[in-house]
Amino acid sequence: MIIEQEQAMFKAQSEFDSMLMFLKDATNQGLGLHEVESTLWERLLKNDHLSLQGFIASQGTGDLGPTLEYEGRTLKRLEGLFDKRLESIFGEHLIQRTVYGTRLTQKHEVIPLDAKLGLPDSEFSYLLQDWDQSLCAQNSYGESRKTVRKILGLDQNLASLEKMSRSMATHVDAFRANQPFAKQADKDSIVMLTADGKGVPMRRNVEKDGPAPKERLKRGEKAGKKREACVGAVYTISPFERTVQDVMDEVLRKRKQLNRSIPQDKRLCAELTEIIESKEVKGKQRIFTWFTKELALRNPMGTSPVVCVMDGDPNLWRMTKRVLDKGNIAFVGILDLYHAMEYLWKAAYCFHAEGSIEAKAFVRDRLRRMLEGKIDYVIGGLKQMATKQGLSQYKKKELAKAIQYFHNNRHRMKYHEYLKQGYLIGSGVVKGACRHVVKDRMELTGMRWRVPGAQAILKLRAVLINGDWEEFQQDLRAENCRKLYPYRDFIMSAYKKTA
User: If DSSP codes are grouped into helix, strand and coil, which group holds residue 1?
Assistant: First the structure.
């Protein structure tokens, strides 16, 4: 091993000297900066590969004698050396190790060198996994592979990148549970919760869904199939009191609201419905369970108001009530104003042409009444118009949907009270999260997912967007080391004794 180490170090030194000579020759030859830069980078990777190989060789094989006394048992040094392939950011390394166990065919119970170096259980170094997956969380596996190949010269296969994603993502839940990032809200702040659904394009199950349609699609028929991901956002914000006119000006795009409160300590999460321990667990349930954990950190004494702003999806509101009520968490439920406006526009187009001045006046008048707390007046007026004007059957159905939507959510439309309290009444944060967390990655051209792969990327992407990537990688390495090498302290003590 000493000879191998010296050879690697000698080669590294020779390569470095060669780089210096290249720089001198480049000056004399008048080479361009790009050529010098690219050549230096190639040689640096080669030099660093030799240097890392020399470091590995310097650690020996982990031979601590013919036997080890561990946890009251005598483990024998198994005959021969056992190879481990490791791909680092500099290239491939072959690590030869001494292994201790009871018999060759039984479990390798103690591998001293692996424990000393903190090696991963896979063939990829932690740094390479880190770089790979920070790219894969943002771009397709194919594009990420190309980027790594262009920069590092490594040619990884797509299957290994996908497997790496799923493996890394299994640690996200434990990381969230063990890392209380959220700060406690001050007494004057509001804790905001918001959730929404966003479809993820899935691979078609031919046996279950039938073959993909080859001819022109009929009305209501879709070429692909989607599974809804529930996206949640939680943040803290200072009260922001506004008048009805302030909101009217902003939502009708007349004037942007100035001095708006800025969300603080924002966290995002996205979950698909999955089978966990033979039971189906809804993505919505997992998001709202996560909400309760966040609230325990942000509002432990219940002194800050908790406000939940969402669209009118009854499943979301049922889950809100079920989970938050179970945790005895008082909250104010608000129907997202922008979703309410969508139904106002649908009602307007039952009576007026799309884009017409009359339609805009229709919406403006009823929006003002809604903001003033007169939703019952708006509902009553629409019902009267439905009976007095001769609408087509299609428009009658559209108007009935709008009326029913307002009726079902009227107890969440006390906008005049919410504005006085300084509560937000729009779910722009979660709408942006649906695009940023889900759409921008999961709906890239040609994307089709299976649940495990999709959930893995959603988890990793949320960690990245939340700004927790470096902390997550540190925690992942530490946890893997604890699981893989519970005997590490024992091994390090044994190394000291043999030094």
Answer: coil
Query: In angstroms, what CA-CA distances link 106 with 69, 74, 100, 112?
Result: 17, 14, 10, 17
Q: Would you tell me how many other CB atoms lie within 10 Å of the CB of residue 186?
A: 10
User: pLDDT tens digits for 170-216?
Assistant: 999 999 888 776 788 887 899 999 999 999 999 876 555 555 555 55
CA 76, CA 83: separation in Å to the nearest integer?
18
Burial 31-53 (b: 16+ CB within 10 A, else e): eeeeeeeeeeeeeebbbbbbbbb
Nearest-angstrom CA–CA distance, 100 and 107 = 9
Contact 86, 59 (CB under 8 A): no
The number of beta carbons lying within 10 Å of the beta carbon of residue 21 is 9
> Which pTM was predicted?
0.88
Domain boundaries, given as residue ranges, for the chain = 59-179+468-499, 184-213+223-465
Give the tokens for residue 236.
């803290």
Q: Could you give the angle at which helices 314-326 and 283-298 cross, rounded to 10 degrees?
A: 40
Side-by-side strand order, sheet with 73-77: 67-70, 73-77, 100-101
CA distances from 177 to 171, 292, 293, 472 (A): 10, 12, 8, 12
Q: What is the DSSP letter of 437?
A: I
Q: Which two tokens stand for residue 92?
A: 């491939």
Q: Which residues contact 241 (CB under 8 A, 6 or more apart)?
A: 419, 420, 421, 422
Residue 146: its H or E element: helix 141-152
Residue appearing with tokens 């893997």: 480
Instruction: Specify the 3-state DSSP secondary structure of 239.
Output: coil
Q: Determine the pLDDT at residue 308.
A: 96
| pLDDT single digits (tens) 129-151 | 999 999 999 999 999 999 999 99
Fill in the amino acid letter for 442: M
- 234 DSSP β-pair partners: 193, 267
